[in-house]
Structure prediction request, 254 residues.
Amino acid sequence: MKLSYYISLVLMILIGGLMSCSPAEGNKTGHEYMPDMAHSIAFEPNVNTYYSYHIWGTKQEHREFSVPRLPVAGTIARGYSGTDSLLQTNDKSISTTKNGHVNYYYKDTEEERIRAANEIVSNPFPLTAKSLENGKANYTIYCATCHGDKGDGGGYLVRDDGGKYPAQPANFLKDDFIASSEGRYYHSIMYGKNMMGSYADKLNYEERWEVIHYIRSLQAVSKTLKYSPEENTFSNSQAVADFKKLYNSIGLAR
Prediction:
């Protein structure tokens, strides 16, 4: 009786040992003791995927852990460090690469467009002679064909097609565009708007903001104001403040 007991006990130990030490290969993960103590729950980063293999907590809790977050303060996005160009600010210099990339945390929906317009209210790049020069060059290449050299929506593609162009391009000199925040422009560059397609693959992060700087300079000219590194009477002008006040008072997204 005792012999059979010990034999059974030894067999159980051997079988348990073999099972717990089975190797992992291919689609087989093998066996290990309390795997949840050694491995975190896996889920696709930056994607809200809630399916049978990843169910833990509620859907809202899962979403909070999986959706993209804003970058940690002080960090630099991959591809946006180097010495190809140098941004000068009042108190420091920032080295960047020309083809830098910075994540954009807004989706291509009307609700997200409004959110971007409300949250992105300033240009992260300083206003310099170089930024205006670069902005003008890229605006002329990518924007002026429709929006016009003056930003009035009268580009040669519209003027010279005999009235066949399907939609009137935006006139940046109108008061509602002057009152709009930078987020409205940036979101349109990223995703397009109406007949306009996305230009995110044609303008890099820095170039997009340079184009926006240049659009602001065109708007300043239309109001007989200044928008330059030497003198900026446009951004904080009473005229612009009145436009923004009116724009917000009637409940329109900026």
User: Anything to note?
Assistant: Confidence is low (pLDDT under 50) at residues 82-99. Residues 102-249 form a domain with the Cytochrome Bc1 Complex; Chain D, domain 2 fold (CATH 1.10.760.10).
